[in-house]
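The data are quoted verbatim here:
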Amino acid sequence: MSETFHAIRLSKSDAGQKAEFVEIGLGDLMAGDVTVAVDYSTVNYKDGLALTGKAPVVRVWPLIPGIDFAGRVESSAHEGFKPGDRVVLNGWGVGETHNGGYAQKARVKGDWLVKLPDAISNAHAMAIGTAGYTAMLCVLALEHEGVTPNKGDIVVTGAAGGVGSVAIALLAKLGYRVIASTGRASEADYLKGLGAADIIDRNELSGPARPLNKERWAGAVDAVGSHTLANVLSMTKYGGAVAACGLAQGMDLPTSVAPFILRGVTLCGVDSVMAPKAKREKAWARLASDLDLGKLDAMTTRATLKDVPQLGADIIDGKVRGRVVVDVNK
C-alpha cells in the first residue's frame, strides 16, 4: 500500500472555508473496520453545498468531503467483507461527519458498505451515485403505493439534474410515460433521449400553488421542494403518490391538506442517507436490472479530483447536466 495518497480536505477558519489538495496517510483517516482503495467518486448536489459552504453540510473540521465512493476492499475486520470485494458507499454521514470519497483511500464501517452487483462496474456505480440510487428509491416508493404505468403519467422535476436524469431513464424503461420539468429548454433533446415523452418549463410549477388544480399525473419524483412540490401535489390524480427527495427550491412546503384528504394523494418522503441496508441492496439490485447503462453513459461526464471544487460550484448554479464520474486516481 502507498505510504501517502491524494485527497481534497476542507478546513474552516475565521476567514472562512477553503478546499485544499493534500497528501495524507492512512493514519489521517477516521475509525472504521474496512479500508477501501477508492476508484471513483461523483458530485451530487449535497457535495456542491459542502464544497461551496452554501449550507452547513460539513459538521466536523477538517474533513474530506464526498458522500459517495466505489472501489475495492483493501483490508477488513468486518465479517461481511474481504479484500478484493467491490463495494459502494452512499451517505451514512460520510462527507459530512466522516471522511468521504474525495480521496484515494477511505476507512469506514463495513455496515455502511454494499457489495456491487456484477452487472454494475465501479465507474457505473459512481455514474449512478447517491443521485441515481435516490432515484431508484423514489421509483420503489411509487411502486409501493401502487402507481403502475397504466395509472397515468409521472412528472419528474429538476429533470436535467442527477436524480431527475436517472429517474427518467428508469421510469421510461419500466414502461411509464414521463413528463420532464426543467428550467433548461436547451436540454429537451437530452431529456427525450433518456425517455421523456413531454417537456414542461419549470415556471409552470415554481410559483405559488392553488390547494387543488387540474389533475395531470398519477405520480411524481420531486427533487425541488417548496412551491414546485406544492404544485405537483395539487395536480396529482386521485390516489396518486409523490416521492419527494430534494430541496433545490427550498425546504418549505406552502400547501394545504387538500390533496391528501380530498384526492387521497400520498406524499412519500425518500431518504437516501440513513436508509437501512436491506433497502439499499434492493435498490442496487433493481438498478442492475432496470437501468439502461447506455442511457447512463449518455448522461455521464468524466472528471478528475482537481476538477471537483469547480464542479461543486457549477452544480449549485445548475450548470451540471446528468452525472459526473470522478476518477480520484487521476
